[in-house]
Design a protein that fits this description.
heterotrimer, A mainly alpha (158), B mainly alpha (161), C mainly alpha (498), B: 161 residues, mainly alpha, Helix Hairpins, 5 helices, C: 498 residues, 20 helices, 79% helix, globular
């Protein structure tokens, strides 16, 4: 779709605000509607739009699949790591009050929502790459994302 | 009867929709051969359940469960949270199902269940026929070996290597 | 520090495999992923054992996630019933770890090996979660985590038919999961709570409503789909046949068992014995289905040409035995069902492992391909024979203990028809086990084999298989500890709900 001038110009204007909006939803999620899952999807939308307009190869350069693999697992680790941290601080799993004297719940939510956001965004983009790149070229890098498609259901035990 | 028409029917509007969607989805899963359509049916089926949960949490005239000034009536937040989780599960299932369909298409060249099963049947029938032939052959050989043993000759193939 | 660890164990047993999974993906190396799997599964097994002891001493271990007091927060509850299933799941998972290295390497390309271990860890975390949770909705989420990862695992099988098997399993499994979701929704609608203990308290007040009756029906149908009880078993034979050998062993020994666990956790603990088996005819229904499962599964098993498929069909039959025990709703019956649940998990795990070792050697899985292996692989074949005898129910094996318990429970309940069916099914199992043994020992090794590398399977595969066989025989010889534990669990279930 690179030859469609209108699409290309409009998307150039739109992608940056979408990214910004994703961060807004991410960091206001703990006291207003929003949160990691929604933010992750919005963030992924921006990249997917970029991939649709400028080609999957260009998107792959911008956000390489290796980064997604690391992101998907890192997000889950941030979530679980928060839980383990609360245990180490003497509380129960995901007992956010232990994280700080005041407002531990806030900090805890921000951190785990960040984890959720990273994982969801990574997995969404990974799914897009797998489906969009399928049939054009078959490198082993793509195959590995198949299993990851279901990695991310683990992070929503909220 | 009139009470049913004026109160029960519209009063349970959401649940009629839920039942309708659920049956449409379930029927699609069972009746269609096309794997993608099956998956669409599954999604519709799951969506019906999402509506069921959201409906049970809603109160007539309530707002979204957000704390604001005043004391408004708000919907039960728990079903909404639960269903957010269930939606994520549904999305994962759909993604995984589509990934499988893509690979089935690559392996068989078709996404019609009938075609795929026919291809499988062709190979498995061939395999089974071959296996049966082999079993018979093995039995025949055994009988043969027994004959040989009567003759006093040692069956060579019995010896482990 | 030690007490803190003991207090945190109920959640750690889930969290350790759950967090090891993303570490596997980060590690991206087959060996590192395998090592992580082994470490996580063995530590989960260790914690499961400690939890079992704790549950025995305290009667029940409870844990509030996030320190939100139940019934408002998610509660983890471990009693003897869940601790026993937990021991089975983690034990099989730990042994699968030892087994997996060579078997996986022969069936899956090295770049994707780490994914198998990551998925197996996720599946393990889901299965453990189902057993430890005390929250109905949480159970659904864990069930879906384990199911989704097992779909992906089955799709990794070496043949292309694995893909369609996995897809069929996905459709059936998701329908089952969604039915469970509807059932949980309906009982939530009537009670406003999701905590199992709280539900059990509040449900009697609304027993007579059609919503709760429908809720029970949805839960039973949904979990029967996951447990592959007879009319809903179609996904199982294909899924077990075409999955990689390690995955077959792992899933066959755990996944359906945990679904049965969840089913009867709902029926006994949440809905209550008097309601499900007294007011509603669930007992008769389940017994009938169980009897059909036993006969039809065994009959189908006899006519299979593929060993893995033969074992899979026998699993369908054995699910019938397990459900028959639970469906009696007496202490003896539930205890017998639970004993067979555990024993069958151990037996099937060992059999699938033995068969996996043979497949590793001959690279094919039809019965004819196993001809003469009794001499080429004496140890593995012997393991299969012991496992097979246990499946039939020969004395001094675990299978005998559970069948004896089942028969006496059925006799006690006066269900002579089901007893007869069980005996006939056992006779049929002699035929199908016999077919494999005949091929192993009474047929010559083919001359033209290109795979003429005689010799045993690798040490890891041997150790894991024989460990399960040893447990099997140990139970067969000295069953008192197991029977005593299952008796306690049964008393808890049958006595607790009413």
């Amino acid at each position: 779709m690179r030859e469609h001038t209108v699409l290309r110009i409009v998307s150039q204007f739109v992608i940056a605000p979408i990214l910004l909006y994703a961060f807004y939803v991410q960091f206001h999620g703990e006291y207003s509607p929003g949160g990691g899952f929604q933010a992750g999807v919005i963030l992924a939308t921006a990249i997917i739009l970029y991939g649709l307009i400028f080609g999957v190869e260009a998107a792959r350069v911008a956000v390489p699949p290796t980064l997604l693999r690391i992101g998907a697992s890192l997000g889950l680790l941030i979530y679980g790591g928060t839980g383990v941290a609360t245990i180490l601080l003497g509380g129960n799993f995901l007992d956010y009050d232990r994280l700080a004297a005041h407002g531990g719940q806030y900090y805890g939510l921000i951190v785990i929502e960040l984890g959720v956001g990273i994982t969801v965004a990574s997995v969404m983009i990974a799914i897009f790459y797998v489906f969009a790149g399928r049939g054009r070229q078959n490198n082993p890098d793509e195959d590995e994302d198949h299993g990851q498609a279901d990695d991310y259901d683990a992070d929503d035990i909220t | 009867m009139t009470q049913f028409l004026t109160e029960t029917l519209p009063g349970l509007f959401n649940y009629w929709i839920v039942i309708g969607l659920m049956m449409i989805g379930f029927y699609t899963v069972i009746a269609h051969d096309n794997l993608v359509k099956k998956l669409i049916g599954l999604s519709v089926f799951q969506s019906a359940v999402f509506i069921l949960y959201i409906s049970m949490g809603s109160i007539h005239g309530s707002t979204a469960p957000i704390i604001i000034d005043g004391n408004p009536v708000y919907a039960h937040p728990l079903p909404q949270v639960l269903i957010l989780t269930a939606i994520v599960v549904g999305v994962s299932t759909t993604a995984l199902g589509l990934a499988l369909i893509v690979r089935i298409n690559e392996a068989y060249g078709s996404i019609e269940e009938d075609d795929v099963l026919a291809a499988d049947l062709a190979t498995s029938e061939g395999e089974e026929a071959r296996e049966e032939a082999r079993s018979e052959q093995a039995e025949a050989e055994e009988a043969h070996a027994a004959d040989d043993a009567d003759d006093g000759t040692e069956p060579t193939e019995r010896r482990p290597g | 520090m030690i007490t803190a660890f003991f207090n945190q164990m109920p959640v750690l047993v889930v969290v350790v495999p759950l967090l090891a999974a993303p570490l596997c993906v980060l590690a991206h190396r087959a060996f590192a992923a395998w090592l992580l799997y082994v470490l996580a599964s063995w530590s989960a097994f260790g914690m499961a054992f400690l939890l079992f002891v704790q549950a025995k001493i305290a009667g029940q271990v409870s844990y509030a996630v996030g320190d939100w007091a139940p019934p408002f927060g998610i509660e983890l509850v471990i009693d003897t019933y869940s601790a026993l299933v937990l021991l089975l799941v983690t034990g099989v998972a730990a042994l699968t770890g030892i087994y997996a290295r060579k078997s996986i390497a022969s069936e899956i390309t090295i770049e994707r090996e780490y994914l198998v271990f990551a998925l197996m860890l996720l599946c393990l975390a889901g299965l453990i979660g189902i057993t430890v949770t005390g929250d109905a909705f949480n159970l659904f989420v864990f069930l879906e985590i384990s199911s989704l990862s097992s779909y992906a695992l089955i799709a990794m099988g070496p043949k292309r038919r694995a893909l369609l098997s996995s897809f069929q399993y996905l459709i059936m499994g998701t329908v089952g999961g969604t039915f469970l979701l509807i059932g949980i929704g309906l009982i939530f609608m009537m009670t406003g709570t999701l905590n199992m203990a709280d539900l059990a308290e509040r449900l009697p007040g609304v027993y007579d409503t059609r919503t709760v009756q429908a809720g029970l029906a949805f839960v039973v149908v949904g979990l029967s789909l996951k447990a592959a009880l007879m009319p809903a078993h179609i996904w199982l034979p294909n899924a077990y046949t075409y999955a990689p050998s390690t995955v077959s062993a792992f899933i066959a020994a755990t996944a359906t068992k945990v679904a049965v666990y969840a089913l009867f956790r709902f029926v006994f603990t949440i809905f209550g014995v008097g309601y499900a088996f007294g007011s509603l005819p669930l007992g008769t229904l389940l017994l009938t289905l169980a009897a059909i499962s036993m006969i039809a599964g065994s009959l189908a098993s006899i006519f299979q040409t593929d060993v893995k498929r033969l074992l899979a069909w026998s699993s369908v039959a054995q699910m019938g035995y397990i459900v028959a025990g639970f469906a009696l709703a007496s202490t003896a019956g539930v205890s017998a069902g639970l004993v067979h649940l555990l024993n069958h998990g151990i037996i099937k795990g060992a059999l699938f492992m033995a068969v996996g070792a043979m497949i590793w050697r001959v690279r094919a899985s039809s019965i004819n391909d196993l001809a003469g292996l009794g001499r080429a692989m004496p140890l593995t074949s012997a393991a299969f024979v012991v496992g097979g005898l246990s499946l039939i129910g020969v004395p001094a094996t675990a299978g005998f203990i559970s069948k004896w318990a089942l028969l006496s429970a059925l006799f006690e309940a006066g269900r002579y028809g089901v007893m007869a069916v069980l005996l006939v099914a056992s006779l049929l199992s002699i035929i199908y086990v016999g077919r494999v043994i005949e091929a192993l020992y009474f047929r010559p090794l083919p001359d033209d084999v290109s795979h003429h590398q005689h010799g045993e399977a690798p040490l890891g595969m041997q150790v894991a298989t024989w460990a399960l066989i040893a447990i099997n025989i140990a139970i067969g010889v000295h069953a008192t500890p197991e029977l005593e534990a299952t008796g306690r669990a049964a008393a808890l279930l049958v006595g607790g709900g009413t």
